[in-house]
Design goal:
Layout: H1 2-10, H2 39-42, H3 44-48, H4 51-56, H5 62-75, H6 80-93, H7 97-114, E1 130-136, H8 143-156, E2 161-165, H9 171-184, E3 187-190, H10 197-211, E4 215-219, H11 228-241, E5 246-256, H12 261-274, E6 278-282, H13 293-300, E7 304-308, E8 316-318, H14 321-329
Helix pairs in contact: 5-6, 5-7, 6-7, 7-14, 8-9, 10-11
Length: 331
């Protein structure tokens, strides 16, 4: 009898594995997504404009460093007015050698950003209040994609989010936002094509209040900023969004960094129309015009709150002034 059992085992029935006393192995957790690369890696084109100034090092004349700094600022689309102000300030500081000019420029840029210290995104945490963030900007700046990425980020931070598709004149915008709502795992309110955008926003906020959502993100039409009637439409949306239970806590202007000084003109007109509270600067990684951040902050007093540094979900990041200055003029 013992012999038969041995033969069956030898003929293909594996003997049971010895018990180890350990619990079954659990499924390993998914790896944490990699952090986005450092800003200086993503701002290579703008950073490259300051290479001649860095190359001077301890050699050369201070006058050559001034010229190199001025040329770099202008080519980075900082603009004539802001560039002249920065160079004048550099000369008054009397730096020693080209290295001193570079260090003084970094200090002056840091001072510009220090004028707008609050870069937080505000959510009103009060009973019966739904915070509303309006996203405004012209066509083609990446506004709908920005709304979707912000929705995903806020949901991961614990907020209950509802998207409002207020661009009712362009069906593709609503379809794109619907895809983002599924991707981000958040609710979407969408009106009929051609319906009044303000009514869509009003209904979305009422729905959010009934559902207990913390935050409504409103994707508005990408209207040309030179059209007076369309600016009036945005003003109406803002008035409606401030009706209870809604409370507008952010008006975020989405700008395309590749447009340089044109972005500055857009920022000026939208700020006058709807009271912009902050800027989202998209496509910062793909341009040599990243210096436009500086006049936006200096001339308009608008804090840049988010920057797009790539196509990935993790590539819409809070703006870090220190990292930006280091990316431009750091060694």
């Amino acid at each position: 009898m013992v012999l038969r059992r041995r033969r069956r085992t030898q003929q293909g029935e594996p003997a049971p594995e010895p018990a180890t006393g350990s619990a079954p192995t659990s499924t390993p957790p998914e790896p944490t997504p990699p952090a986005p690369p450092a800003l200086r890696e993503r701002l290579g084109r703008t950073r490259g404009l300051f290479a001649p100034l860095r190359a001077l090092g301890a050699r050369g004349e201070v006058a050559a460093a001034y010229d190199a700094a001025e040329e770099a600022l202008l080519r980075a689309d900082v603009g004539v007015e802001t560039t002249q102000s920065l160079i004048s300030s550099l000369r008054q500081s009397r730096p020693v050698g080209p290295g001193g000019v570079l260090a003084a420029l970094a200090d002056r840029l840091a001072e510009v950003f220090a004028e707008n210290p609050d870069r937080s995104l505000r959510v009103e945490r009060a009973p019966g209040v739904v915070s509303v963030w309006l996203f405004v900007g012209v066509n083609g700046v990446g506004k709908t994609t920005t709304v979707g990425k912000v929705a995903l980020a806020r949901r991961e931070q614990g907020d209950s989010v509802l998207l409002a598709a207020a661009d009712t004149f362009r069906a593709a915008a609503g379809d794109q936002l619907a895809q983002w709502s599924e991707r981000a795992g958040v609710a979407l309110h969408r009106g009929a094509p051609g319906s009044d955008p303000s009514s869509v926003v009003f209904d979305a906020i009422q729905r959010a209040g009934a559902r207990g959502n913390d935050l409504v993100l409103v994707d508005t039409a990408g209207r040309l900023h030179t059209k007076v009637n369309l600016i009036e439409e945005l003003r109406k949306i803002r008035r409606v969004a401030d009706r209870p239970p809604g409370r507008v806590t952010e008006v975020l202007l989405v700008l395309d960094a590749t447009t340089g000084q044109n972005a500055l003109a857009q920022a000026r007109q939208f700020t006058e129309a709807v009271g912009v509270t902050g800027v989202v600067l998209a496509k910062l990684d793909g341009t040599a015009k990243g210096g436009v951040v500086i006049p936006i902050e200096r001339q308009l007093g608008l804090p840049v709150k988010l920057v797009g540094v790539g196509e990935g979900l993790a590539d819409l990041v809070p703006f870090d002034p220190a990292a930006f200055v280091d990316a431009l003029v750091g060694a």
